[in-house]
Amino acid sequence: xxxxxxxxxxxxxxxxxxxxxxxxxxxxxxxxxxxxxxxxxxxxxxxxxxxxxxxxxxxxxxxxxxxxxxxxxxxxxxxxxxxxxxxxxxxxxxxxxxxxxxxxxxxxxxxxxxxxxxxxxxxxxxxxxx
Length: 130
Hints:
Elements: H1 6-26, E1 40-42, E2 45-46, H2 47-54, H3 58-73, H4 78-106, H5 114-121
Antiparallel strand pairs: 1-2
């Protein structure tokens, strides 16, 4: 019997989801605070801000859940992962080539030069600033 059951995993995921909601709803200061909180810790910090601040634990909880799920499936999914990556890359190449052709026809910045275009085919360069 595994020490960490599926029920525990679902509860942990649910807790992480609730923490994500709390952090996005209540981690606000000053004029960004929604409504009128009843209890204030300081003139610009309501008590619900602290709940939002401590709900930042949601990302590490999700990371642990993902790591646990990966440990459960072990090495059996590597072949399927490569198939999924190839399927994603085919869609990416179609969109990249389509918009590069449109950019070339309209005289836009895309595809830029051939080096940037070839690097973007293998994900070494991106037109996205982010």
